[in-house]
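Quick check before the chapter quiz. The format below is the same one you will see on the exam, so make sure you can read both the input and the output lines.
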Amino acid sequence: MFKELDPILHSQLRLAVMSLLISVKEAEFTFIREKTNATAGNLSVQVQKLKEAGYIDVVKQFKDNYPQTTCKITPQGVAAFEAYVKALQQYLQP
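Here is the expected output.
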């Protein structure tokens, strides 16, 4: 009857990250941290989990001698997010 919700996306912070990335396609780590109001450590752990699942790509580089981390949603991440939203909608219908 009800589809199982993706446990990777069912975390509040990971879902927030994916929701941001679905609209902007890619964002710097600092932007995501500010928008989600997460600590850098917690966000780093959650970003790593999304990366391991194949939902996002993470690029680490230097910009003006400062480290810069950029997160970008993958096609697999878009599909997983859309499936999650669709499954969640089933729970909300009477």
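If your answer matched, good. The mean pLDDT is 94.
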